[in-house]
Design a protein that fits this description.
Layout (H helix, E strand, L loop, with lengths): L9 E9 L10 E6 L10 E4 L5 E7 L2 E8 L6 E2 L12 E3 L4 E8 L3 E6 L12 E6 L6 E6 L5 E7 L2 E7 L2 E2 L5 E3 L1 E2 L11 E4 L4 E2 L7 E2 L3 E8 L6 E8 L2 E8 L3 E7 L2 E9 L5 E8 L8 E2 L5 E8 L11 E6 L9 E2 L4 E3 L3 E8 L5 E7 L17 E5 L4 E9 L3 E9 L2 E2 L4 E6 L2 H7 L3 E4 L5 E7 L2 E7 L8 H6 L3 E5 L4 E6 L6
Parallel strand pairs: 1-8, 9-18, 20-26, 27-34, 35-42
Antiparallel strand pairs: 1-4, 2-3, 2-5, 5-6, 5-7, 9-12, 10-11, 10-13, 13-16, 13-17, 14-15, 15-19, 20-23, 21-22, 21-24, 24-25, 27-30, 28-29, 28-31, 31-33, 32-34, 35-36, 35-39, 37-38, 37-40, 40-41
Length: 496
Amino acid sequence: MAVLTAAKGGVVQGVVIEQASGRPMERTRVRLQPVPNAASDARLLMARAGSSGHFLFPAVPDGLYLLTAVREHYFPASYGQRLPNGQGIPIQVTADSDLFTELRMRRMGAITGRILDPNGVGLPGVHVIAYRARLPLRVARDAVSDDRGIYRIHGLDPGKYWIRSAAQTLDDGSGLLPTFSPETRESREARAYPAAVDTETPDADLHPMPGRLFHLGGYLQCEPMGAPVAVFLASETGRRGITAYCAGRYLFENLAPAAYEIFAEKEGGGDAGFLELFVDRDSETGTIQLGPQPVVTVTVEGSAGAAIARPSFLLTGRRQDLTESGPEREIKMPQSTLAPGYWEIGARTGPGEYIESIANLFGGPRRTWRAERSADWFEVFVDARPQSRFKVIISGKAGSIAGNVQSDGKAVPGIPVFVWPVAEQARRSLRGPLLALSDVNGRFQFGSLPPGDYRMMATFDLSEVDEESMEVARAVTVHVEPSQTATASLTPWVAP
C-alpha cells in the first residue's frame, strides 16, 4: 500500500477583508511573490480567497516573499503595507513557518458631481470624462450622468483630475460643447479635483457651454462594393465607432469644433485608411481611400551612422489615437506590416546598449497643433502609402547603476527601488521610470541606461513614481557615464 507523505514547507494563510465594512472578500486573488534570489528557484504562487475571505498557501519553499491581494476597483493590499498605494514588506518563510494575517483592501478613488443647465437643473445622459491633470490629455475613466444629472467616476488612482463633458445634442436640437469643470473650454483654466483612497470627492459640478455642433461625413473608397468597414472617429473627448460599407458613405454627427482622427479598416482585418482633420463646420470632406496596410521598413544604425545588420533588441509598438492606445505588439525587423496612423514605439536592448532615437526616416513630427508628447515612447507616423520607413539609432555605450539598500547598517531585501530618468529622451529610451526589487542581500542593478542623470529612491510606501514624488522624497541624483557603472547606496524613504 502506498504511503502518502505531506509536502514539506511553511504555511502562509490569512483572510482578505474590505477595510470600510470589515466584510470578507470572496474570490479575491492572492499572490505570493518570491524576492529575487540567485540561489533559489522559488516561483510565484497564486490562490483565491474562499467564501469566508480565507486563503491558504501550504508547503511554501523557504525564502523571502511578498504577499499581495488584488481585486478590481480596489488598491492591492500587501502584508506590512503602510499606505494604501504603497507596497508590502517581505515575509521570511521557513519549513516551520505558520503565518496567519489579515489583508485589508481599500476602494480606489471616485469623483462625483452634477451636470447642470444655466438654471441649475440636472442634465441626464451626458458623457463625462476624467483626465489626469497633466498633458497630453489621456482619458482615465468616464461615466454618464443619470436622470438627475448626477455622475460618478470611480476606479481612480490617487492624484488630481480634470473633469470634462463631451459634446451633447439636447432634445430641442441645441448643442453643448465639450467643457471642463466648472465652465471653461481650456484645460489650463480647469479646476483639478483630488481623488483619494476610500474617498468620494463630491461637488465636481460642471456647466456645459452651449454651442453649435457639426457633422462629418465622407465616402469609403474600397472594393468590393458593399464589404463591411469598421470606421472609428477619435478626439480628446472620446472614440466612436460605426460600421459602413465599401463604396458607401459614413457619417458622424454631434461633433464639436476640434481635431479628429478617422481610422477605417475592413472588418476582419486587411485594407485600411487614415485621415486627420479639424472640424468647425458641417463637412463632407472625410473621404477615405482604403488600401493594403503599409509595409514599414526598419533601418537600424549605430551612433556613428553605420548600419547594424542584426540588431540585438526587440522592437514593440502600439497604435495610438487621440483617445487611447491599442494593444502592444512586436514590430518585426527589417519589415513589418502596420496600420496607418500614429504609433508609439519602444525597444528593450541587449546588455551595454540603449536606444538613442526612433523616428520617421523622412518627414518631421506630425500633430503640430499638439505641443505635448508622450515621454515614455517614441512617436512615429505610418503613412497610408504602401511604404514607410523608420530609423532606429542604437548606442553601444550604455551605462548602469549598481547599489544596495541599507537601514541601520543592515541590508533591506525585497524593497522597491525606483529610478527616474531626468531627461525626457532617456525616459523614452527606457519606456518610462524603472522599478526593481532589491534581492535577499539588499542589492539592485539597472543596466542599459543612456548616459545622464537619474533620481533614485527605495521605499515600501509607493507603487509608482513621478517627478513630484521624487522631489517630495528628496531622491538622490546619480550621474551615469557612457560604458560605466555608477554606484548608489540608498536608505529606505518612509512617507510622512
